[in-house]
Amino acid sequence: MTTEAPPQRDMGVGSQSWLVVGLLAAAFPLQSLLGSALDNPAFQTWATIFLAIVVQSVPFLVFGVVLSGIISAVLSERFVARVMPQRPALAVPVAGFAGVGLPACECAVVPIANSLTRRGLPPAVALTFMLAAPAVNPAVLVSTAVAFSGRMDMVSARFLASMLTAVVIGWIYVWATARFPALHLPDIRERFHQDEGSRWARFAAAAWHDFLPAAGFLVLGAVVAAAINVWVPIRLVEAVADNALFAVVALTLFAFVIALCSEADAFVAASLTAFSDTAKLVFLVVGPAMDIKLAAMEAGQFGRKFAQQFVPLVLVVAASAACLIGWVIL
């Protein structure tokens, strides 16, 4: 019986790179053809918001893919297995609290989670870390305290609700993996042999592997989020603030579509004075866990079928956890 050789990584220019080159080449003739449309105030507002989202997110994305490359070059399956509990059910809360030590935006942690799964970490544990890190790290907690004028009840509620969301999602995947064969786990079919070659080669291969799809879907998500910001005014959302159920649903959807960075969303939440503290907490918990930009990035990193199951599950669990913690603390 012959053994098929593993596919080699192609470090050349792929279709995504050619797409970028094509778009850049078409930019100048399109500018002359669409001159009047580009001067439209609505388009300029869209462009400003789009650039703000991308500029705000790209440094964290770069940080994430660099850290992803370091993880791939340095960590081995043996090391991951040694530092994490053997039982996934115990490893899930450990991964959640590990997120406290990584001051990374949600854009950065998606490729990190992808890299951790390639290094042998169970998908449920990597997903827990991915959900916890953007929401419970010190930078986010400090920004929340500043935005809410030192209110430690709001800071504590955000920490507890976000941690609860991450751990519950992890446990759901631990429980469901063995019981539901149809469950779509993160797609890591592109696992490549990272133990071959020098550490620098493994670092470059992993970083390149993660950056192109993550950056492409980040831009796609930013395009949609900016469009919604332009054509769906905040005043329409505030119109439902008087109804507790509608307020929670509205701010869940608002957090999903506005796609704010977790280090900045507390200032927006504090400005929504028409809403209750619990509804604001829902906004703060849902946004870092799942927004339209993250959904696009996760579809690119882990596969479309996985995202179709994962996105609605996270939205429901995050909103429910925020309501429960808000009812207890706020």
Automatic annotation (TrEMBL):
<feature type="transmembrane region" description="Helical">
    <location>
        <begin position="244"/>
        <end position="260"/>
    </location>
</feature>
<protein>
    <submittedName>
        <fullName>Permease</fullName>
    </submittedName>
</protein>
<feature type="transmembrane region" description="Helical">
    <location>
        <begin position="49"/>
        <end position="76"/>
    </location>
</feature>
<keyword id="KW-1133">Transmembrane helix</keyword>
<dbReference type="InterPro" id="IPR005524">
    <property type="entry name" value="DUF318"/>
</dbReference>
<feature type="transmembrane region" description="Helical">
    <location>
        <begin position="18"/>
        <end position="37"/>
    </location>
</feature>
<feature type="transmembrane region" description="Helical">
    <location>
        <begin position="155"/>
        <end position="176"/>
    </location>
</feature>
<feature type="transmembrane region" description="Helical">
    <location>
        <begin position="88"/>
        <end position="113"/>
    </location>
</feature>
<dbReference type="Pfam" id="PF03773">
    <property type="entry name" value="ArsP_1"/>
</dbReference>
<feature type="transmembrane region" description="Helical">
    <location>
        <begin position="310"/>
        <end position="329"/>
    </location>
</feature>
<feature type="transmembrane region" description="Helical">
    <location>
        <begin position="211"/>
        <end position="232"/>
    </location>
</feature>
<feature type="transmembrane region" description="Helical">
    <location>
        <begin position="266"/>
        <end position="289"/>
    </location>
</feature>
<dbReference type="InterPro" id="IPR052923">
    <property type="entry name" value="UPF0718"/>
</dbReference>
<keyword id="KW-0472">Membrane</keyword>
<keyword id="KW-0812">Transmembrane</keyword>
<feature type="transmembrane region" description="Helical">
    <location>
        <begin position="125"/>
        <end position="148"/>
    </location>
</feature>
<keyword id="KW-1003">Cell membrane</keyword>
<comment type="similarity">
    <text>Belongs to the UPF0718 family.</text>
</comment>
